[in-house]
Fold these 2 entries.
Entry 1:
Amino acid sequence: MTTFVELLLNGLSIGAVYALIALGFVIVFRATEVVNFAHASLLLAGGYVTAVLRDDIGFLAALVVGVAGAALLGALIEFLVIRRYRGRDHSVLAIVTIGVDIVLLAELTRRIGSNVYPMGDPWGDGVLTLGGVSVPHTRVAAFVTAGLIIAAFLLAFRLTSWGVATRAVAEHPETAALMGIRLGRVSLSAWAVAGGLATVAALFLTVFPTPGLERGTSLAALKAFPAAILGGLDSTTGALVGGLVIGVTQSLATGYQSDLTFLGRGIGDLAPYLVMLLVLLVRPAGLFGTRELARV
Amino acid sequence: MTAASLEVREVSVGYGPVRALSAVSVDVPEGAVVAVLGGNGAGKTTLLRAVSRTLSFHGGTIGSGSITFAGRRLDRLTPAQVVAAGVVQVPEGRQVFARMTVADNLRAGALGARGGRREAARARERVHELFPVLADRAHQRAGLLSGGEQQMLAMGRALMARPRLLLLDEPSLGLAPLMADRIAETVREINARGTSVLLVEQNAAIALRLASSAVVLEVGEVALAGPADELAASDEVRRRYLGIADDGAAAPEGTAVEPVPAAPVLRRWSA
């Protein structure tokens, strides 16, 4: 039972981090109808900046610069690449983002090499023990931070002019333009927000028990894709639920791996995709989505 | 030239190789209601898109001609700048943001306007005065409103930007006759409060009742233009758009089976 609770808590924590990534994915899709395959490399870029700078300017400042840097990078991608293709076929744009991803990833891999950058976070490898259940401090911090950021994001999405503009563009770009909403700004801000959120996620993907940021970190980020898709690509609620589902599934599947040997090894890494496939079989538009993936 | 009048001069628009408008000129003097009539594919919506600068969403471009509002060229601005200049379009088919609440729809309408919170609040008050139902349903999703209510919301949303000129694309489309009449009444009221209106309509009876002058488009060209009452009295318009046959017998509007006398003055619109 203790194991189960521990796994569940770990899963919820990692799920909240996936939700951060999925949220950035969804916000870009809603604002621009682009499936952003460069999201994982945005995440790696933000994490890399944070990891490199933390020795010189301290952890917190490095994180702020990392978030700002990834936001800027996202905005740059939008401004230099995506904007040129606006109005074109969205599947073309999705492929363009694959190209951007390859370029970014190549450069980051060259810089990172085989290094592992510890994040230098204040939580270290401390473990919180409550009634026999132990959870690493980093997992608690991840859950709380991600929860707060997601709450703030959803409130902003619901209440601010930025949120109203983004939702209007998501529903009908041309009509939004008729209201005087600047589509370029909405799209730019969505990419920037996605970059910022991804950096926070990068931090929590690379702290204890993970040794640190390495070139493979973006692979871990890929698990947030099934989260976004099973939640429904155009739903913020879906990103949230999808993230948690994937996190818990992965955590439980990894934890009980020894009982699941008939499925072969490494089921924990596979489970997110299995869950996604099962959900899509029943609900092709995802749990909360309104548009089917054929749209992509 | 500081009066807030719209002048469309010899505007030609193409969607790729397809000509949609050829040298169309329309004037909307300050404070007037001007109607644009014509069948499907005549270029009515294209004309509005040219003014609101949303042609690019459909792959269209202005080939030649000029569009000025209050002495300022509109045909080089972005859609947002056109809204800021005081020209706001209500799109065909209403296009309310169905997943957003009525209140958020109105908020979206105010995003492109100049001025701050206080002016937006005043605009909302005026919209609620004009359409009390929008205040009652403020927190409902716009998609749950009836067709007539959605049309009211679409118009209210546009009014949130405090336009000096309102472009209305088929406001009566798909509405019950009673509701269409109510919308017409509201258009008159909006105009009485000082907003000029460029009204695109297939329902010529309503349009000619509201407008002071009208333009008839056929296959992208101005076929007739003049004061609304003169047009309403002209045989051609009566037969084609008001559904009144020459012999006095009522014929259904715009159907292909209506009797066509020899040598019609106007070409028939396609589709």
Entry 2:
Amino acid sequence: MNDAAPHDALDDNRQGLIGTPVDRVDGRLKVMGQATYAHEVQEGGPTAYGFIVEATIAKGTVSQIDVTDAERCEGVYLVMTHHNAPKQAPWGPLLAKDRFARSAPQLANNRVDHYGQAVAFVVAGSFEQARSAARLIKIRYAESAGRFELAPNLDRAVIPAGRPGREADSRVGNFEPAFASSTLQIDARFTTPVQMHAQMEPHATLAYWKDGQVIVHCSSQLLMSAKNAVANTLRIAPERVRVVSRFIGGGFGGKLPIYGDVILSAMAARILKCPVKTALTRQQMFHFTTHRSDTIQRVRLGANADGRLNAIAHETWSHSASFDNFYESAGMQTRTLYAAAHRLTTHRSVSLDLPVSDSTRAPGEAVGMLALEQAMDELAEQVGIDPIELRVRNEPLQDPERNIPFSSRQLIACMQDGATRFGWSRRNAKHSAVKEGNLWVGMGMAAATRGNLLQPSKCAVQFDDQGVLTVRMAMTDIGTGSYTIFTQVAAEMMGVPMAQVRMEMGDTDFPPTPGSGGSFGAASAGSGLFDACTQLRTKFARKFGVNAKDVTFAGGRISGAGRSETLASLAGSRGLDAVGEIKPGAMVKKFSQQSYGAHFAEVTVDGDTGEIRLRRMIGVFAAGRILNLKTATSQAVGAMIWGVGAALHEHAVIDPRYGYFVNHDLAEYHVPTHADIPAIEAYFLPEFDDKTNPLKIKGVGELGICGAGAAIANAVYNACGVRTRDFPLTLDKVIAGLKLQNTLSTAGVPPHFKS
Amino acid sequence: MKSFSFEQPATVQAAAASLATHADAKFIAGGTNLLDLMKLEIEAPTHLIDINRLGLDQIETTDDGGVRIGAMVRNSDLAAHSRIRIDYAVLSRALLSGASGQLRNKATTGGNLLQRTRCYYFYDTARPCNKRVAGSGCSAVAGFNRMHAILGASDQCIAVHPSDMAVAMRLLDAEVETINGSGVRRVIPIAEFHRLPATTPHLETNLRRDEMITGVKLPAPLPGRQTYRKVRDRASYAFALISVAAVIDASGERAQSARIALGGVAHKPWRVESAELGLSGATINVKSIDAVTDQLLAGARAYSDNDFKLALVRRTVHAAVAEILKNSPQWK
Amino acid sequence: MISNLNIIDEGAEFFEISRRNMLKVSAAMFSAPLAERVMSASPPAPSGVRSRDLTQPARTHPPVMLPVALNVNGRQFDVRIDSRTTLLDALRETLAMKGSKKGCDHGQCGACTVLLGGRRINACLTLAVMHDGEPITTIEGLSNGNPLHPMQAAFLKHDGFQCGYCTPGQICSAIGMLDEAQRGVPSHVTENLSVAAVPLTQQEIRERMSGNLCRCSAYPNIVAAIGDAAGVSP
């Protein structure tokens, strides 16, 4: 992608499939319970069941492990520990180009690097026997002291290795003196806690070997990375690994890496010569898989009296596992969102002995915007202007740090549209001004932004003499709607009904794609598909004998030069096929690419108990061309609800004595329930971004979370005057700042009962 | 989960007798807490006695105008029963504020009383817990104790009883009816059913080893209006941070009687009858309610993460009482 | 202690791998009769297990295997099953009905919701052996797809799911929930307990469905779907 995308068949949209809110093509399978997730695959013969034994210390070594009782258990086929585990490649490399393809050995030695790491693996003929035998393993540890908390270890923070264009720090102008001389100053410290992906489907693997190749059905967002990770770990050629993930029960970043369920099952299947399947328990997921790091953030805004920013700084700290180099890029959006002459953003990483932190839905923005957009709300109040007007006054004409144009940017338009839809004008700018009975009522808003990405991707298409277009790519649908939108794109490109498209994904035997992550899936795999279809159209035109630009594809036919023929007959018995490809190019350097939006929330705060309830929420987004209004809206609404969770509920609590997350189940790690979520609406503004990719789309899946929680926090402040900078906003933090009201005197009780 | 033998006795007497003859036997009713714990081997019975086919699922009016609730009456059926909804609304409300529709369809009256704490450390077999392993220590006292007790705790255990239903039953002065393997029946006032942890946190109730709960008896309905106010970290499907059950008969300027019980604050539903006497015949106002709350909270101690509960109890008592007064028809 | 178990390069022939596309495979699975072979509780040991591992020393902790007649979706399955097997694992592993999902295995998510005698329960928190002869309905029993059950159709129409993993539980729960509401069972948000008929508002649906988590957070669409299926105006 080195130039702007030209006008194309999707712009013509002759069949009208692009943008149409069609039902998901895999929807029938899902509502019938017939979609088959990894643990449900039955292949390769009778299956043995694996169960992982986790370390119950956070740092140290296994000094003794006695598996005698477990091995003697009826039905137990194998007990694997570091004593007998097959030799694997060492972990890493740290500086891998694809960190999700790193070697990830299991039971390699007796060292424990984090709580919940695998220390043994039991395989038995039944799940019940494997689980109970696992409990019979006796383990002694030599425990060493570890570091588990961010705040007390900030003095050990290091500058993480960035990459070109995403360096850890950025400086423009001279922030410190500019801030010091600003008329209005906001200097606020925010904290966000560790959060969990908490996908509904626990990570699971079915692995078996056939003809020297290991077939791994697992729950992976990135199939090619998974394939390479398995190959790297087991020290076998990538061709000897096939990874299949046809349905994935939620990813959110937590299924970017592979985990021990994959490696242990693959190794055991090799040894036992039978399929082995292993699922993590819900409790294991908290430590065995990755999480979103907690963050500490300092935001400083220096503005003149009318709110124009002169200085903006966003300094962030997050943690990374002791052996890893991940950091939460919480300050990145601050480089592009608002104009200011003097700018500073920093990222610092603290190495802790916690489980591995990594990407969680909208890494960076999801938590960075919680801080930045609360600070902006505070500034608006100081200036005495509407929060939207504050953003209008600080709207940059171009990327304020890279000094290049935006590919497209409708931030203010989203805010204005949202304000109308929401009834923002009814907001009382003064906090604690609206009360309904016992409830304080408030409204808040925040901006949304998320970086847009494009990755290399390939796709194979084949058209047969039955008029069926088969699309193959090693792409995943983690609930985003990939199966559906690619079916729409393919059908529209080739002028065939959607029912004539066979979308085959989720298998590394198909051409490589980057998979689903970072909101790059639709753009990348979709562009590979677009290119494949474009080439196929050219082949059809050639066979038809008319120049490609002079033909049309509709109704399963190709037409031009006064003639028309069915594609099926033209394809013939040998069919016609093509392989397409997309590569990112100069456009990412020429244009600053982000999607934008605005969130509006209304909350109530119980005057007695401090309980916060969301009443309604509206998000308006501009994210390029929308391929399917139904699935895109669902993505946006779902992400906004993640924002609700981040604002009000989610908090994996670290117990620094043990180095683990205390509340490691779904009863105590609270994600929103139905009852927490009222009507939430998401809208998209029309947008066609020809600088981003051939489809002229932007990523949709993560945008909705960015800023959503800040809108809620701002609404809470507007409701009751309590500004909580430490997430989540639980009621204890609210009542700490909420004056005890005389409910008894104001509850409509007759005068003689009043005090 | 450890292996266990399994039986489905046909009569109450056979079930009780079986319990007496198996050393590590447990009854399984709804199973919603027991299996949860067995999967983690926090409970590891070697024999399970399924009591789902014994009947004990009736709600009957008693001679004194109260009701007898069979031990196997499901939480959802109890909450939906017309008599309970009208005469014991606090019990319906408490039940409906707990768990989920699915769990309430399974969970039973007897089982709910025997629910075990949700203390994170009790649930984690890798951590010390005096309740799980006597003498191993309490991880919660100096750990994360947001959900934990502020009343009646000991340095050995600061866990709370998680039941909403039991709080309402405590308010209503319910009685727990039991039978043992020899057929001997016993009635245990709810106030004496649950225990404080003291030095024996592993003992949660005064149910004897060989006893089986057959039912719960509620006395004749109380005059006045009832409410159950549960405060939790999300809108539904969460255990209480605290809860307040209250009934006030204020059919004039003064309260004829009032009762207040607290959940989520102690190892058992918390009620101080002597404090309630202060409300009898008194004007209900901030002062009189605060005076009762002061007595309810006498000796309260928080453990850092749950400091907020002290203020929250007072605030929620205010809210609950205000709700009752507001809804009392004589003031409409 | 078993000695080092290295991965060696010998080829082991297994069963033919299915390479048909997923839509075809899944559709075929539905119409195929359930394999009777899954009734065997103790599969033969895999060939890779060395005989000494199986015989020496004597095996301990044998499972307690019990006969039970599971009545699922109108069909009776006579199986011998480990006393520890939950109803959920019996459905998924023993009967190969994978529609009911395991999300937490502790009654904290609702993905395993099935209907027991028409009442919704968490299949993960009950034992298979406790349900001899009792009628159980799972997502597979709601329809054969032609047509879809009205609740399934409503979920499809309203996009009441994304990844689809919680969906069978949501749908079964919704059906059980509507029946409860019809029977006048109140909820936490029911204002007046003294009236027998409870109006089914959106707020009522949300509270009653709260035992079914959806991390994709399709909640508003799920509520819309249920409201549509139940004839509740938005």
